[in-house]
Fold each of these.
Amino acid sequence: MLKTTPASAASSASASGGHPGGVSDEEFRAAMSRLAAGVVLVTAHEPALDPEGPRGEDVGMTATAFMSVSLDPPLAMVSLREGSRMDDLLAEQPLWAVSVLAESQRHIAGRFAMKGRVSDRLLFADIPYVRGEASGAPLVGGALATLECRTEQRVSAGDHTLVIGRVLTAGVPSADGGPLAYFRGRYRQLG
């Protein structure tokens, strides 16, 4: 067994792209990629700056770090990259929605996960959705489940923000097909 001193561990960690006293970025990504996760589309409506001007804009992002937190009260949580457009928007306004994507909606997940993507307005252009009554955010047609939330708490966690929301509405609009999953860096279907 190889023993390391704190100083050698720190220099080794920084040389390998890791963190002092911890795992390297690559090791952590590889281990966490073995955890299958459901895929959701998180959406929110950015209000217009001028109430007399054009309507605000819909914003969306793909997420795999989404989970239920509590039944009483009903709470759910999503993890957002700190400084992302969604993180900035939800820091200003508290209403958001989640559509749990079906296995047939891989194209939607990929579209909203792209880096350097086109405007959100174009991304929503040919996707069927209804506007949530509680949040005003898009709820994707054909999703396995939809939830509308109001932020209760924001927790800074490393390079992400954990947004905990009270669930205002929950629906199961579609029972067709299985969930879209993410495993080992790729979208997958169960079965």
Amino acid sequence: MSDAAQPTAAEVRAAAEAVKTALDRHLAAVERRSGEDDPAVYEAFNQLAAAAEVYDELLYDRYDEVTPFEIPGTEDSLPPYAGPEEPNAISVLIRRDYAVAEPQRLLAQAQRVEAAEYDDGPGADQDAAGTIHGALGILFGEFEPDEIASRHKEFGLEEGDSTLWVTAADEPAEPGEWLEAPFEAVDPQRVVCRFDVSAVFDDEDDEDIEDAEDVEDVEDTDELDELDLEEDGELEPLDAER
């Protein structure tokens, strides 16, 4: 990171103060909690986690140092389900992140779509495919999000994290009710289930595989030792012919 983009010492100090304040609020909420699933404790916990994460990032960017804090995974941060037992409606919230890995490929795909739309000549938006944001608008307007997810490499995109939340509702929303702010009123206590995809999980799986391979190596060594003992002690296998 360049010096110009680095946070200032004052910003790091302010982030540290925010952590201290969040700690006090969290402790106060815990001391006043009305039950095991007190929403005030849950909110204070999230505020503390967010403050700690910001401080950790700024500290690393400014001083190349880290904190001992470990933010619990999202599966641990959701409160217990408190929605209707038999929901009459559900909402599905999806977020997928992409990096524009190959801009020229993205532009070329958008230009093909634009050319197919205007077979008789250039259309009103003939310059849209010449910019990244214009190309994205064309491709996401032409293809369903699931198709883009399955063909992202063709469009010059690289997958990042993704998450899908299914939330329960008592009644379906009125037409146009939430369009202005579609993700604003999500109640974590009404999340029926969620599915997360991240390279973080892949790293954890790789570590588990390496640990398993180490265990297998030890087991194989033990078997070799047993064979050596049999040969040295002239012991016969149990299924040997007598």
Amino acid sequence: MIKLLQTIPVLLFGASLAVIFPQVCAASTVQEIAILAQASRDLPMVKSAGLSPDMDVPWSKAVRIVDPFEGEFLGVFDRNSLGGYLYREGSKQVISLWTPSSIRVLVTVNSGQATSSFYTAGRVYTRPDYFRFVTTKKVDKLLLKVREKVFQLDGSNGTFAVSQELAAALKNAPDENLDIRLVLEGGQTVDSEIGKGTVKAWRTIY
């Protein structure tokens, strides 16, 4: 009886989708939609869609995002470090969030090694003090190559819309790393890649 009560809301959710999106039901039954809805409930949950340098999320795995401002949706977070050691001065980090409707990208740059001097017994000693500064760069364009096709996306504040054509390409991307190029404000480019773990997770997202 308890299991039945837990299943009813999922079936109602699937039925509501059938009313809102009848074209989906042409290919899938209400029961299949309910199974998909239940599967999404079993994914790890992340409580924010915000991107930050030190965020702690499951990387390269499909997750269920429950954001207090944006609602609930599926997504996959990806991170790639450029320039060697993550915290080395000058190294870059490309963080992205892939959802059914958009791609969000954050580029950070690590910098800041400060030194200070002090006097004692007539001599000058240099004492290194390390301060970690993380700055973000505005991303104006995103280029990604899926198989032989290059998609060039224009964004706003690092957010890029996902078209039906792009969603289909991502869903069917080969199981391998995928190259991307970010064009920053001012024209600087940053070449990075999306790991094959994230590429595999796209099949759940799209």
Amino acid sequence: MPPQYQPGRATVRASAGTWTLQSTLQRHGLGPVAGVDEAGRGACAGPLVVAACVLRSGDAKRLEGLTDSKLLTPAMREEFYSRIVRRAEDFAVIVIPPAEVDRRGVHIANIEGMRRAVAGLANPPGYVLTDGFPVRGFGRPSLAVPKGDLTSACVAAASVLAKVTRDRIMVELDAKYPEYRFGEHKGYCTPVHDAALGEHGPCPDHRFSFVNVASVARVGARRAVVQNGAAVEVPDDGPFVGEPEIAAGGVES
């Protein structure tokens, strides 16, 4: 990282609280700080959803208890989602459809979604925090934070925005395809989902680049795509589409 982007030496301990890293960066003139996280990376059906969020520095008490969305109950996630949408300084949510995940591969789609989420913020952040692994291409300095959704409030906020958005989409898909019970498992590879796949085959909202989906897809012309570094085959007549468009309200669909 170029020296001009490096903050002065500061010791930041996780035990100091989830707002400490954001506050330290802001104190060194590197704010506003955006947190970025995704939901649905490991699911074999439904979209990949990525969010970026900038929290107001004085909202620690109003968002007390905010943490990794996976550790919150559905009711708590909905409550924090409402607070974050109402109180956040800025946020953007990107919805990447299954066809694009198939076409790009889940890791590349995830990284590109992170870049698009940050670019979708109304005002460019001064610094970007990502959960777990480094990402380049934000046009801003960034830092990978181990277990970021547990240790950084703005990353936790992004995880809630992404998780709640995706869960709502999966509930809508459950109404459209009740035989898969998407509302129950949200598209992840559970025994219930695997049994439904075996009985009914995949629907258009499944990810055909995932091995369990490809293995039950109907026999037909196939072509290879890269999924997590490994080439697998998916139907040539699967629904591969172009880039999603930005919709109103800070959410891509």
